[in-house]
Amino acid sequence: MTAKPTKRKNEPDQQIIRVRVPRGKQVLGEVEQMLGNRRMLVRCTDGHIRLCRIPGKIRKRIWIKDGSIVLVDPWEVQSEERGDILWRYNKGQVSWLKRKNFLKKLEEE
Questions:
Q1: Is there a domain that residue 17 lies in?
Q2: Which of 7, 61, 87, 94 is most exposed, with minimal Cβ within 10 Å?
Q3: Along the 109 residues of the chain, how does pLDDT read in single tens digits?
Q4: Contact in structure between 28 and 86 (CB atoms under 8 Å)
């Protein structure tokens, strides 16, 4: 007899452990559309819409869907059009970013 699957009681999403903030050229963004083949359109806090990709290093580790808040590293070439996704924030981290006004520009648009 197999055990009945149960709902998790201790949600790891709600725990805030060291939120990664943008450094240097990195920007925050919200995923607008999944394009397939590890690519997606991301609306960034600097006003640009970038075609971003998930590097192979983190491809299987984090799962991203429409509306996710992500950390984007613009490319050296075509920095206003393309970038790499470095991190996906969970619900607790997104609420912390909103309280600290990191996502203010995304909410205005």
A1: no
A2: 7
A3: 677 777 665 555 556 678 888 899 999 999 999 998 889 999 999 889 999 999 988 888 888 989 999 999 999 898 889 999 999 999 989 999 899 888 887 777 6
A4: no
